[in-house]
Design brief:
The chain is built from ten helices and twelve strands. It is α/β, with parallel strands linked by helices. The mean pLDDT is 95. Transfers a succinyl group from succinyl-CoA to L-homoserine, forming succinyl-L-homoserine.
């Protein structure tokens, strides 16, 4: 029997102070849980999501085909993160467009959608909001916090903001901050959105339009960075879309890779919110725990007390293994307990979402160690 997921939500009236100096009150967080919380509440695992994912981490929605959670191959009964043993929580972040309060929701002060007026949020703000949800669920400490990519940044931040509440941290295909190239990719994607004539300064909801052209381009740019050169060449190479002769057109779709990217862009523009894209990519840009310690990552991570597992992938050039090794070194400089796996995989950044036996075996082994110290 598949794991059946049940979306939930929780409202918070008290203002949440944000890194920017602003605050937000009267917000809602969407979340899902899988498995059972044990008697001493010691088996909770928080899973943090990446840019375009959500709280729907695992399982399926009853009666809905193709509704698997985004990390369903990792989390569930008998899987590397075994929901027969752990109580797993997925939370949709503030500012997202999958149930938690975000730009498309009504601003209590005006009664109109927030749009561009939604406050800028950071990784640290998301962690604080997640902590409030855990407080409300009666969970004082986490057996583990886990995430890939931007989710890995949140997992790392948990160990710094709430070191006493996190016993283990799993950081997959992530980095201690974005390099200039990554920030540049994010900025080009944002420019594509804000220069779309249908963007209307972020207040497009009232105009009955969606800046789909900008969203399509943003997704195409992002998708290129998630795949490795090897995967793109293997899947598409230089194959023409139609026939064996080019049309010699600057406007038509000529190559299979062009067709694929346009398909991904079209699909993304149908379900993702443009303002959310701006918010989340900016949160990625801002994340830099070492920045508050004169650029010293070792000093930033000195306060972490958790035991760590870091995983990277050989062909991931967006969050390269070298970035994970920076975190490993900083933790070792502080004599922290760290395990590190560098998986030789051809899939690029997207490898963290795929079912690679070596990768899953590493995660399974780590969670079996965690589980040995958790009451039934």
């Amino acid at each position: 029997m598949p794991l059946i997921a049940h979306p939930q939500s929780m409202a918070f009236e008290a203002p949440l102070a944000l890194t920017s100096g602003a605050s937000i009150a009267g917000y809602t967080l969407a979340y899902e849980t899988y498995g059972q919380l044990n008697a001493d509440r010691s088996n909770a695992v928080l899973v943090c999501h990446a840019l375009n994912a959500s709280h729907h981490v695992a399982g399926v929605y009853e009666g809905q085909s193709k509704s698997e959670g985004w990390w369903d191959n990792m989390i569930g009964p008998g899987k590397p993160v075994d929901t027969d043993r752990f109580f797993v929580i997925g939370v949709n972040n503030l500012g997202s467009c999958f149930g938690s309060t975000g730009p498309m929701h009504a601003n209590p002060a005006t009664g109109r959608p927030y749009g561009a007026d939604f406050p800028v949020v950071t990784v640290e703000d998301w962690v604080n909001a997640q902590a409030r949800l855990l407080d409300a669920l009666g969970i004082e400490s986490l057996a583990a916090v886990m995430g890939g990519s931007l989710g890995g940044m949140q997992a790392l931040s948990w160990t710094l903001q709430y070191p006493q509440r996190v016993r283990h941290a799993v950081v997959v295909a992530s980095a201690p901050n974005l390099n200039a190239e990554n920030i540049a990719f994010n900025e080009v994607a944002r420019r594509a959105i804000v220069t779309d004539p249908d963007f209307h300064g972020g207040h497009f909801y009232g105009h009955g339009v969606v800046p789909k052209r900008g969203l399509r381009i943003a997704r195409m740019i992002g998708h290129i960075t998630y795949l490795s050169d090897d995967v793109m060449n293997e899947k598409f190479g230089r194959q023409l879309r139609e026939g064996i002769s080019p049309k010699y057109s600057t406007q038509d779709v000529e190559f299979q890779i062009e067709s694929y990217l346009r398909y991904q862009g079209d699909k993304f523009s149908e379900y993702f919110d443009a303002n959310t894209y701006l918010l989340i990519t900016r949160a990625l840009d801002y994340f830099d725990p070492a920045g508050r310690h004169g650029g010293s990552l070792a000093q930033a991570l000195a306060q972490a007390q958790a035991k760590f597992l870091l995983v990277s992938f050989s062909t991931d050039w967006r969050f390269s293994p070298a970035r994970s090794r920076e975190i490993v070194k900083a933790l070792l400089d502080n004599r922290r307990d760290v395990s590190y796996a560098e998986i030789d995989a051809p899939h690029g950044h997207d490898a963290f979402l795929l079912e690679d036996p070596r990768y899953h075996a590493v995660v399974r082994s780590f969670f079996e160690r965690i589980g040995s110290g958790v009451a039934a």
